[in-house]
Every structure is written in C-alpha cells, then in structure tokens.
Amino acid sequence: MPQQILLWFAADPALATLAGILAALALALYLFNAVRLTIIDFKSHLLPNRILGPWFIAALVLLGAAALLAGEPMVLLRMVLGAVILFAGYLVLHLIAPAGMGLGDVKLAAVLGLYLGFLSYTHLLWATAFAFIIGALWSVVLLLARKATMRSSVAFGPFMLAGAALALVVAG
Prior knowledge:
By secondary structure, the chain is mainly alpha-helical. Helix content is 81%, strand content 0%. α3 packs parallel to α5 and α5 packs across α6 (121-144). The termini are close together.
C-alpha cells in the first residue's frame, strides 16, 4: 500500500494528499481491527459481525474514495472483485469443511479482499498463501508442544490477518 500512496503524490497535490490520507486512515483501521479481532478470535473462536460489517463499509468508503480521488477508478473495481474473490474462495472452503472454516472467516475474507484488491490480484494470492502457511506452522508448533491434537480447532482469523498484513508489506 505505501508504494501506491507515494505514486499519487506525483499527481494533483491536493487530491493526492487527500487520497493518501484516506488510504492511511484505512490502514490504521486495519491495524486497529486486526489487533481486536486477533484477541477475540484466539479467545472465543469468533469474528463478530458487529466489527466485520462496519469495517467492510468503512474500508470500502475510505479505499474507494482514495482510488477515485487519485483518478484510478479501476482500483475501486479491483477492490470489489478482490472482496468477491476472497469471499467466494473462503465460502467454498466453509461449505467443504464447515468445522474447519467458520463463517466469520468467510466474512473477514471479504474485508481483506478490499485491502488486497486495492493493490493487486497478486496480493490476494500471496495473502492467502501466507495465511495458510502461517496457520500450518502455528498448528505444527502446537502439536509438537502437545498443546493441541489433530482434532483441535485453531482460530484462523489471526492468520488471515497476518497473511494479509504480510502481503500488504512485502508482496508485489
């Protein structure tokens, strides 16, 4: 996301500055909600709708407005498609194995799709791969430490959030 913001500052300074501020606010919202949801999901294995719904709307407005102010309407389209693609992919996983992938994860995928789609489809791919790799490594650690068994459930939301954050920073 930082690279995209920097490019906008080369355009109309006033609009670019406003676009950068909106994107930065969206990023701050990401960090705030990622911490909240990680704590909640690890404790309760729930990702509450009261957080996910407003976050989706706020991210769509902030990032969408940033894209439009920067003169890049195709970014808005890519964001929406990113949300649909991740939502659909995680929904399929939920339908295949409902015990392994909760509906909260499916809804979180839509939110993350907005952020990742803001940058590129490649970010969608990397974030998903990172989430499953980090989640698998954590599960192996729990198994080796005998803190979990093969039948234990692991909150996946924190790994989705970490995978997306990692993709936002390093993928491209």
